[in-house]
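It is worth pausing here to work through a concrete case rather than discussing structure prediction in the abstract. The textbook approach is simple: state the sequence, then state the predicted structure, then interpret. We follow exactly that order.
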Amino acid sequence: MGEIAARTGLSVSAIRFYEDQRLVQPQRTAAGHRVFTRADIRRLSFVMVAQRLGFSISDIREALSSLPEGRTPTKADWTRLGQSFRAALDERIAGLTDLRDKLDSCIGCGCLSLKACMLHNTEDVAANRGTGPRYLLGDSPTDI
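Step two, the predicted structure:
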C-alpha cells in the first residue's frame, strides 16, 4: 500500500476507500497482501483527477466499468472512456467560463447599476424563479 501511495500521491486511506468503492481491485497474495499493477496506478490517477474536476464516485465508477477486466486497458480503451467524459467536461468549462465572465463584470461595476447587478436581489424577488443564485444561473433581473 505504501508503494502505490507513493507512486500515485494518494494516501493509503484514500486507496483503501477507492478499493472499498470497487474503483480499483488489486490482486491478493496468499498472505493477503495487495498487489497493484500499472493499470491500477492509471485507474487511481484517473480517479484522483476526475474527483478534482468534481465528478462523483458514482460517475467515476460508471466510467471505469467501461474498461476491460482481466487485461490492461489499451490506449483505445482509455480514449473511449475519455470521450464519454467529453460532453460533461465541455459543459463544465462553458459554465465556469460564463461564471468567470459574469463575475468579472460584477467586480468591475462597483455596484453603480443595481438594476443590472448579478448579485443584487432586492427583497428576494428572484426567489419566485426558484432556488439558488438566479441571476448567476441565467435569469435576468428584467425577467422578474
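Step three, interpretation. The chain has a mean pLDDT of 82. Residues 79 and 85 are 10 Å apart (CA to CA).
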